[in-house]
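re the bet — no i am not wrong, look at it urself. input seq straight from the record:
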Amino acid sequence: MRVHVVSDVHGNAEGLARAGDGADALVCLGDLVLFLDYADHSRGIFPELFGVEAADRIVELRTARRYDEARELSRALWAGVDRASAVDQAVRKQYAELFAAFPTPTYATYGNVDVPPLWPEYAHDGVTVLDGERVEIGGLVFGFVGGGLPSPLRGPYEVDHETYAAKIAALGEVDVLCSHIPPDVPELCYDTVARRFERGSAALLDAIHAVRPRYALFGHVHQPLARRMRIGATECVNVGHFASTSAPWVLEW
C-alpha cells in the first residue's frame, strides 16, 4: 500500500494535480488557500487586492513580529472594502481549482488558513473530509484533526485548546495520527527562516504518548528545525511545504 501525504498546498494546484501519481490514496493535511506568499509577495489574495508594495510592508511587519502595526495597516487597507465578499470570492476561486486537482481517493482535513464552511461545495466524489474523525486505509486506521490553535496571525480556522483536545480525544486508537499543526515539541515547532516558534499542540503530544500510533504526520511549519523525530514508538514527520516543493511525502506498508 502506498499513500502520498501533502500539507501547506497554498495555491499549488499544478503540483497537487500530480501529487497522487503512483499512490493508492492521497492524504492532505490542509492549508489549501494562499493569502500571501512570503517568498513571492506578488502571489496570493492579499497582493491581488492591494498590490505588491502593500504585501511587502505586511511581510516586513509580521516578520519583525510587529503584529499590532501589521493589523493597523491591514485595517487601513480594508477600509471601505467589503472584506467578507472580497475574500469569499477569492477563496472560492482558489478552492474551485484546488479541489478539481484532487485525485480519487483523497482524504483531507483543514489547515489554520482554510475556510471549512466552503469545503462541502467543492469536495467532489472521492474526496473525504475528516476533522476529529477516523478512516481505514489499507488496513491502517488514520485519525484526522484539522485547524490550528489561536495565534497572533488569527487564521480563519483557529480553535481553542479545549475544542482541539476534544477532537483528538474523539479519535481513540489510531495507527496514523494526522494533523495540520505539530505536537508541541520545540524542534518540530521552530521555523528556521521565519525565526519563530509556531503553535504546536500539547494535546497532540499527550495523544502520542498515550495512544502510541505508528506515525504522527503534520505540516504547518514550513522550514522546521527538525523534520522527523521519534517519540517513543511514534515516528513524527513534518511532511513538507508542498507549495514550494510539489513533492508529497510517501508512506508505504
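see?? The longest helix spans residues 83-101. told u. also The domain at 2-32+104-252 is CATH 3.60.21.10 (Purple Acid Phosphatase; chain A, domain 2). so pay up
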